[in-house]
Amino acid sequence: MKEYEEVRHSLIDMLEDLDDRLTKITHDVKEPLDKDFEEQATQAENDEVLDGLGNAARTEIEMVKQAIARIDKGQYGLCQVCGQPISKERLKAIPYSTLCIKCASQVGAKQ
After folding, report:
1. Nearest by Cα to 7 from 104, 63, 66, 91
2. Are the CB atoms for 76 and 67 separated by under 8 Å?
3. Zinc finger (dksA C4-type) residue ranges (predicted)?
4. Cα–Cα separations (whole angstroms), residue 10 to 39, 75, 77, 96, 110
5. How far apart are the first and last CA of the chain?
6. What is the residue-wise DSSP string for 26-74?
7. Which of 2, 18, 50, 87 has the fewest CB atoms below 10 angstroms from its CB?
8. How far is CA 32 from each of CA 29, 38, 39, 53, 72, rounded to the nearest angstrom?
9. Angle between helices 5-29 and 37-73 (to 10 degrees)
10. What is the model's pLDDT at position 57?
11. How far is CA 94 from the centre of its chain?
């Protein structure tokens, strides 16, 4: 676990940033609608975009939490399909990755 202690701290920082972002998005979506009909339409469109961003943030939060759990269990950095190590470069780019490059390209995943 000590090998990935710095990664764990980085993931915790990422989790805090994502939580902050999600809180702001949730607050913005809860804003009351304007009285002007045209402005309401614009606000509704913006809320749809914010909802999508919120869903993406929730997904990323879950992936980060799972990565932290894998570090704590000593399973971090291993591909969940083939069991081989995930390259350090890939983990640096996507620290919550669950698949090695080979398996990710085979399943077309972004993980």
Report:
1. 91
2. yes
3. 79-103
4. 40, 17, 15, 11, 20
5. 22
6. HHHHTSPPPSSHHHHHHHHHHHHHHHHHHHHHHHHHHHHHHHHHHHHHT
7. 2
8. 8, 14, 11, 19, 42
9. 160
10. 94
11. 10
**What is the token pair recorded at 98?**
């669950």
CA angle 67, 69, 73 (to 5 degrees): 115
Helices and strands, number each (H, E), in the chain: 4, 0
Q: Is the pLDDT assigned to residue 53 strictly greater than 80?
A: yes
Report the distance separating Cα 99 and Cα 93, nearest Å. 13
pTM, entire model: 0.77
Two tokens at 83? 């069991």
- Residue type present at position 96: Y
- Does pLDDT of 34 surpass 70? no
- Count of C-beta atoms within a 10 Å radius of residue 86: 23
